[in-house]
């Protein structure tokens, strides 16, 4: 394995990139320059006036401050809104600007490790929305990365993979994460549900109502206010929970000197880790694992970005009635797409079974086949295609494939959308 295995965290304020190093069996951060300590790269881009030259991060800020170019920030939000920016009379789509930004980020590990080859790139973002993810894949492809080498995780899932890649005593019980940035205060919680095979890992995320601008930390009174807010949140969130470890990340935790009361609460019988590159590091672990013959993570993950139920139907194969899984619980919804063909045998209704993880409750989803052409029994072949537009939003398409030359395919499609558990 000689190509780069990268995890890239894209946020509106800062982005980060990590490269998995197989010899060390861990990711290491990639910074904009060798003197950078945090590895936080501002998600901004600036075009130098009168030249086809682009700069990102702190270099973009400096050029814009000196009046040498036009800067665009909040690129992720701009792409989500399908916005654009006009620079020196030229209109650039947000997707084009993000492509330039990501391309510049990818140059950093190429230069550091002396290779152009990309074996795996895993993005991680705060919110998973289908149209944005489509754009992100196109951005990667336009940077020369093959589609099959590109994957996208939620921050919640990256948190899971980062934590379970550490020593087991760190996540023996529940594990939590505070992410403090200009976007606000985000809280993540993870637990392993034992006694099931395979084991299930559940994680949740919430953006807390309690928040404060990081600018307040520039004064002693503001530090005290931030410390009080955080310690109050921790006391409330930790109640009646057995938490093994607490992680702290985000620009607000570049230093924890201001958060003495909060740390006193967090460190009570718990391990506390503070640092950046947690999300990009988790993504980099996945970038490596995806290329292995056998995964190092034999778990079913239930979190943002993962399907919470198994979707299946029963069909006769080789004279036996068997369950055909169309979507497995724990699958990445954006990549979960299946296609199976059947021959109808005295059937006018397609019955799907939806089984939530860890629940005895089973749902039935039925699709009438009356819209298909009327034919003799066992002379209609159908293709059933299952895909998702979100972790709970499933689309099922039934396509008439006919039956050879006797009954040509009409191409008729029955489409139904469902909200599943």
Would you mind describing this structure in some detail?
By secondary structure, the chain is α+β, with helices and mostly antiparallel strands. The protein folds into three domains: 4-152, 2-Layer Sandwich (Nucleotidyltransferase, domain 5), CATH 3.30.420.40; 158-280, Nucleotidyltransferase, domain 5, CATH 3.30.420; 309-419, Substrate Binding Domain Of DNAk, Chain A, domain 1 (Sandwich). The chain has helices spanning 57-65, 75-80, 94-113, 130-142, 155-163, 220-237, 260-266, 278-289, and strands spanning 4-9, 14-21, 26-30, 41-42, 45-48, 54-56, 69-72, 84-87, 90-93, 118-125, 150-154, 174-181, 184-193, 199-207, 243-249, 271-274, 299-302, 309-317, 320-327, 338-343, 349-356, 363-368, 381-390, 393-402, 413-419. Strands 1, 2, 3, 4, 10 and 11 form a six-stranded mixed β-sheet that branches. Strands 16-15-12-13-14-17 form a six-stranded mixed β-sheet, with helices on one face. A four-stranded antiparallel β-sheet has the order 19-18-21-22, with no helix packed on it. The longest helix is centred in the N-terminal third of the chain and has 20 residues, at 94-113.
């Amino acid at each position: 394995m000689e190509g780069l295995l990268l995890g890239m965290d894209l946020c509106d304020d800062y982005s980060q990139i990590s490269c998995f190093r197989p010899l060390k069996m861990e990711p290491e951060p990639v910074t904009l320059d060798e003197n950078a300590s945090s590895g936080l790269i501002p998600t901004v881009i600036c075009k130098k006036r009168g030249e086809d030259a682009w700069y990102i991060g702190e270099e973009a800020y400096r050029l814009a401050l000196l009046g040498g170019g036009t800067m665009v920030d909040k690129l992720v939000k701009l792409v989500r809104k399908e916005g654009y920016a006009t620079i020196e009379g030229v209109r650039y789509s947000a997707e084009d600007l993000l492509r330039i930004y990501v391309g510049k980020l990818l140059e950093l590990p190429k230069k550091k490790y002396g290779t152009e080859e990309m074996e795996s790139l895993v993005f991680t973002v705060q919110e998973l929305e289908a149209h944005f993810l489509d754009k992100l894949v196109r951005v990667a492809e336009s940077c020369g990365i093959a589609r099959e080498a590109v994957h996208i995780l939620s921050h919640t899932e990256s948190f899971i993979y980062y934590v379970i890649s550490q020593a087991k005593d760190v996540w023996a019980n529940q594990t939590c994460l505070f992410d403090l940035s200009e976007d606000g205060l985000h809280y993540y919680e993870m637990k392993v549900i034992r006694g099931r095979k395979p084991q299930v890992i559940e994680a949740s995320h919430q953006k807390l109502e309690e928040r404060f601008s990081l600018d307040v930390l520039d004064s002693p009174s503001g530090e005290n206010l931030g410390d009080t807010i955080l310690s109050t949140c921790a006391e409330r969130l930790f109640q009646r929970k057995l938490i093994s470890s607490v992680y702290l990340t985000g620009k607000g935790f570049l230093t924890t000197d201001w958060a003495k009361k909060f740390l006193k609460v967090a460190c009570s019988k718990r391990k506390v880790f503070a640092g950046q590159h947690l999300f990009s590091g988790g993504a980099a672990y996945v970038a490596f694992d995806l290329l292995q013959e056998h995964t190092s993570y034999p778990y079913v993950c239930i979190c943002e970005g993962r399907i919470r139920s198994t979707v299946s139907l029963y069909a006769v194969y080789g004279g036996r009635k068997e369950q055909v899984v169309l979507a497995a619980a724990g699958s990445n919804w954006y990549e979960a797409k299946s296609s199976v063909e059947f021959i109808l045998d005295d059937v006018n209704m397609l019955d799907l079974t939806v089984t939530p993880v860890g629940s005895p409750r089973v749902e039935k989803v039925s699709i009438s086949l009356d819209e298909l052409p009327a034919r003799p029994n066992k002379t209609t072949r159908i293709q059933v295609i299952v895909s998702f537009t979100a972790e709970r939003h499933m689309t099922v398409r039934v396509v008439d494939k006919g039956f050879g030359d006797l009954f040509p395919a009409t191409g008729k499609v029955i489409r139904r959308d469902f909200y599943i558990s």
